[in-house]
Amino acid sequence: MNKHTGALRMSVRGKIIVLVLFLECILMVTAGLLFLNEHKKHESETLNYIGTSLKNHFLRTSLETKQRYASRVAGFINSNPEIPEAFTQGDREKLAEILSKKLAVLHNEDDFFYAITFCLDDGTVFYHSATPQREGSNISHIPFAQDSFDSQRPQGGLVLSLAGLAYRFSYPIFDQGRYAGMIVFVIKATHAIGMITKNFGVDCGILIKNQYAYRFDQQPYPTIGNHILVASSGLWFTNPRFLEALPINDSHSSFRFSGQQFRIFYRLPVENYRGTVIGEIVTVLNMTEHLKSFQQSLVHAALVFVAIFIATIFVLFNGAGLFLTQVKQLQAALEDKVRQRTAALEQVNQQLSQEVLERERSQKALEELSERDMLTGLYNRRKFDAYFTTEWNAAHREQRSLSLLMIDIDHFKAYNDHYGHLAGDEALAKVAATLQKGVSRPRDFVARYGGEEFICLLPETALNAALSIAEKLRSQVQELQFIHEFSSTSHFITISIGVATACPTPTQAKEDLIELADRALYRAKEGGRNCIRCD
Predict the structure, then answer these.
(1) Which of 160, 183, 235, 408 has the smallest CB count inside 10 Å?
(2) What is the number of H-type helices and E-type strands within the chain?
(3) Is the dihedral of CA 423, 429, 433, 436 positive or negative?
C-alpha cells in the first residue's frame, strides 16, 4: 500500500512538473514575442522619422538653393555693371580679371558653387571660369540654353548638360537694348545630398534615366539598371560592387553587401528646371551596428530564458514555494530588461530628434548671421534682395502699392576724413538704430545698402504715407544732434531721402523701383541735402 501510494505521488509530482514547465515555455515565448514586437515598433518609428526628416531636409535645401541663386545672379549683374560691359565688348581678359576676386568670394561663401559661364546669343561659350577649354564650343543644342535664348529671361533649376547634372541659373545680358547673351551660375548637384550625408550619416546617390545620357560629354558614369549614377555623397556609392548589389527596383527594401546590412529609406524623384522627372535620389543607411546591438539583446534574452528554465527545474525538484519565488524574480528581471531596452530605444530616438533640432537651429543661426551687417546690425543687401523679391511678387499679386526709401548720410566722407573711421562707424550704427526704430510695422524692412547708404522697403504703403515716414526718419536723425562740423548742410549729421512708389505690373521690373528711388535721392542731394524728394 505504501509502495503504491509513493508511486502515485511521484506520478502526480511529474505531472505538476510537466505542467509548470509547459506553462513556463508559453510564458517565455510570449515574452519573447512581445520583446520582438516592441523592438520592431520602435525601430519602425525611428526609421520612418529619419526617412521623413531626410526627405524634408532635401526638399528644403533644394528650394533654398533655387531661391538664393535665382536672385543672386540677377543682383550680381545689376550691381556690377563693369561685368556685362566687358562681356558685350568681347574683352575676355578684362572679364576674367574682374571676376577673379568675385569668384573667390562665391567659392568661399558656398563650397558647392562651381563656376560662372558667359554665352553669346548664338550659343557660343565666351567664358568658363572652371573649364576654359570649353570656351568656343557651342551649347545651343542644350534644352536649357535653347529656352534661355528663346525667352531672353532668367531660367533656373537642375539641368543636364555636357558637364553633367548641376543647378544652373541664367540671366540675360543686353547691350543697348539688344540681346547679347547670358550669364550662368553653376552649383554642384551634390549641394543638398552633401548636407544630408553630413547631418544624418547616410549615403545618397543621384540616378538619372539612361535616355538622358546622350547629353553628357562622354563621361564614364556607372550604370545601375536603367539609370546612371551622376553624383553621390558618402563612401558606399563609390564602390562598384556596392552598386551592383543595390536593389534598384524595390521602393523600400533591405539588402546585404560585404557582410553588412543596408536599408533604402526612400526614392525621391529628381525634376529638372522644366519640372520633368529625369531620375531619382536614393538614400541608404548602414544598419549593421543597429542589428548587432539587437542581436546582442536577443542573445542576452535567450540566456535569461535558459537560466529561468534551469532554475525552474531546480525549484520544482526542491520545493514549489522556492520555485514560485524564483519565477517571480526572474520574470521581474526579464521585464526590467525589456523596459531597459525600450527606454534605450526611446532615448536614442530622443537624442536623434534633439540632434536634428540642434543642427537645424545652428543652420538657422548661421543663415541669420550671414544676412546681417556686422557693423549696424541691420539686414545686408543680399537679404534685402530676397525680401524685395518676395514683397514685389506679393504686391503684384494683390495689386497693392509698394514704396521704397533710398537714404544717404549727407557729407559722410568729410565726417570720416576729419573724425576718423571709428567715429564714422559709431555714426553709422546710431543712424541705423534710429532708422530701424523709426519704422514700426512688422513687414517694414530696413537694410544697409552699402557704405553710408540705407534702404527702407514699405509694403502696402502709398506715396503720401511713404513721404510722411521719410520725413519722420529725417527729423529723428537730425534730432540725434550728432555733431558734424564739416557739413555744409548742418552742424549735425543729416540724411537725404529719395522716395518712390509703384503698383507692380507684369511688364515692370522691380529694379525700376530702385532706380526711381535712386534718382529721387540724387535730386534731394542736388536740392541742398537734408531733404526729401520723390519720383
Answers:
(1) 235
(2) 13, 16
(3) positive
Q: How far apart are CA 326 and CA 114, in angstroms?
A: 69
Q: Is 365 exposed, middle or buried (0-12, 13-18, 19+ CB in 10 A)?
A: exposed
Cut 0.70: pTM above it: no
What are the Cα distances from residue 172, in Å, to 130, 144, 242, 248?
20, 13, 43, 40
Q: How many CB atoms lie within 10 A of CB 409?
A: 24
Q: What single DSSP character describes residue 222? A: P
**Closest by CA position to 73, among listed 38, 42, 118, 43:** 118
The CA distance from 92 to 127, in Å, is 7
Cβ neighbour number for residue 72 with a 10 Å cutoff: 20
CA angle 491, 497, 502 (to 5 degrees): 170
Angstrom distance (rounded) from CA 99 to CA 95:
6
Sequence-separated (6 or more) residues with CB below 8 Å from residue 357: none
What's the length of the chain?
535
CA distance 192 to 359: 15
Give every residue of the chain whose pLDDT is below 50, as ranges: 1, 5-8
**Helix boundaries (H) for 279-420:** 288-318, 320-370, 381-398, 412-419
Residues 169, 66: Cα–Cα separation, whole Å: 8
Instruction: Count the Cβ atoms, other than its own, within 10 Å of residue 79.
Output: 11
Cβ neighbours for 382, distance < 8 A, ≥ 6 positions apart: 72, 75, 370, 371
What pLDDT, in 10s, does the model give residues 229-264? 888 888 888 888 888 888 765 555 778 888 888 888
d(CA 190, CA 111): 10
Contact yes or no for 468/438 (Cβ under 8 A): no
Q: Which of 434, 482, 475 is nearest to 454 (CA)?
A: 434
pLDDT the model gives residue 8: 46
Q: Among 284, 282, 232, which residue's Cα sits nearest to residue 256? A: 284
Residue 38: count other Cβ atoms within 10 Å of its Cβ: 15
pLDDT tens column, 48-100:
766 677 677 777 777 888 888 888 898 898 999 999 999 999 999 999 999 98
Q: Which helix or strand (DSSP H or E) is residue 277 part of?
A: strand 277-286
β-partners of residue 405 are 456, 499
Beta-sheet strand order (sheet of 227-233): 223-224, 227-233, 203-209, 277-286, 260-271, 253-257
Q: What is the 3-state secondary structure (H, E, C) of 12-53?
A: HHHHHHHHHHHHHHHHHHHHHHHHHHHHHHHHHHHHHHHHHH
* Rg, the chain, Cα only: 35
Report the catalytic residues: 452
